[in-house]
């Protein structure tokens, strides 16, 4: 008689982010959102300190740089966004809309490790009305062309949504903009508060997904694959335009099977009738020399392959270039992913491979 397969306990849901330490800019408390978040901090008994500026958090606890980094990832700063000039965000959108900076996730390859440098703490901006007014100006300047705003360039805003509620407001603001569109990408599944938001089809939500191997080895402190997919199903059912970003696409032993399984798992998990207007964005793994040295310090045991001798150097427009896969490998990754995607999702669009 066959031995009964022991039933696996269902893993616990990935918890919502609760910071261990909070810094507050006094000016932030003059905004309703700042006052509300601060009230929640006090009610929750989270230790807090006042700070003169969200750009100058100098006294983080921790003896070593690594300890401080880990604590920073669990530190929330409630601030006011003073710079209301938006950065460009090619190729996925025209502009990055700044509602938060920093992330509690620990993805080894994350580019925020270098772009945020010594400021890896999580900042949320409470002057959302001013940020939305700035967005309105950008939209008007480009009319009648559409202007797309990416809300996840410097953070993972879904992971912060239970604290800020900013995405919901932004979604409803963009629903009323004939020429404005919002998009964001996430590795978190905390989307329930967005499901009944009035979106008017103007917000595209994308989930960042990857093979089992990549998620297991390189994406600690984010929602599990199954949670992201369940959330994607809810987003599709709520009528939002939906997409997936597969990034970073990594070459490892068994990558063909890993990525084939990923696409098959997506197809199994989505509504049987399919998702209209589904998009994919494909980004191969790349790193700079600076990123490599930061990652090796922060995640000294990472299995992330960053051997510059195995890579192709791609010149950067603004200074430091990046190491990508050599053309032959990049081509193989692109072809395999493309074939798998169109085999399972014949109506989908691949926006880009980079
Ligand atoms: S979830 Fe996204 S923003 Fe956060 S650490 Fe991972 S890659 Fe970076």
TrEMBL record:
> Can you list the GO cellular component terms from the UniProt entry?
endospore-forming forespore
| Any coiled-coil regions, as ranges | none
The record lists the membrane-crossing segments as: none
Keyword Metal-binding annotated: no
Cross-referenced Pfam families: SPL (PF20903)
Question: What domain of life?
Answer: Bacteria
The UniProt record lists the EC number as 4.1.99.14
Q: What class of enzyme is it?
A: lyase
Q: Which keywords belong to this entry?
A: Lyase
Task: Provide any one GO MF term from the record.
Answer: S-adenosyl-L-methionine binding
Full protein name: Spore photoproduct lyase
UniProt gene name: splB
């Amino acid at each position: 008689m066959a031995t009964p397969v022991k039933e696996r306990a269902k893993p616990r849901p990935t918890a919502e982010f609760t910071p261990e330490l909070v810094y507050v800019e006094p000016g932030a408390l003059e905004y309703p959102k700042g006052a509300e978040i601060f009230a929640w901090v006090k009610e929750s008994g989270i230790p807090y300190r006042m700070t003169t500026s969200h750009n100058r958090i100098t006294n983080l606890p921790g003896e070593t740089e690594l300890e401080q980094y880990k604590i920073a990832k669990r530190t929330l700063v409630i601030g006011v966004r003073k710079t209301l000039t938006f950065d460009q965000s090619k190729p996925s959108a025209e502009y990055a809309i700044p509602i938060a900076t920093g992330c509690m996730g620990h993805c080894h390859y994350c580019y925020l490790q270098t772009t945020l440098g010594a400021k890896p703490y999580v900042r949320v901006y409470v002057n959302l009305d001013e940020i939305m007014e700035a967005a309105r100006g950008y939209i008007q300047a480009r009319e009648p062309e559409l202007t797309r705003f990416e809300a996840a360039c410097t953070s993972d805003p879904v992971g912060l949504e239970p604290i800020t509620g900013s995405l919901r407001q932004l979604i409803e603001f963009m629903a009323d903009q004939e020429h404005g569109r919002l998009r964001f990408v996430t590795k978190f599944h905390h989307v329930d508060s967005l499901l009944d938001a009035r979106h008017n089809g103007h917000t595209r939500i994308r989930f960042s997904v990857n093979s089992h191997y990549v998620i297991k080895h390189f994406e600690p402190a984010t929602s599990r694959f199954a949670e992201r997919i369940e959330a994607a199903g809810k987003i599709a059912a709520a009528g939002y335009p939906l997409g997936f970003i597969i990034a970073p696409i990594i070459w490892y032993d068994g990558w063909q099977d890993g990525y084939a399984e990923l696409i098959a798992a997506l197809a199994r998990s989505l509504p049987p009738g399919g998702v209209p207007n589904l998009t994919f964005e494909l980004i191969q793994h790349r790193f700079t020399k600076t990123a490599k040295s930061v990652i090796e310090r922060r995640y000294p045991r990472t299995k992330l392959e960053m051997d510059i001798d195995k890579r192709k150097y791609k010149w950067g427009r603004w200074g430091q270039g990046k190491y990508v896969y050599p053309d032959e490998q990049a081509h193989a990754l692109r072809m395999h992913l493309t074939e798998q995607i169109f085999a399972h999702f014949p109506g989908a669009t691949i926006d880009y491979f980079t």
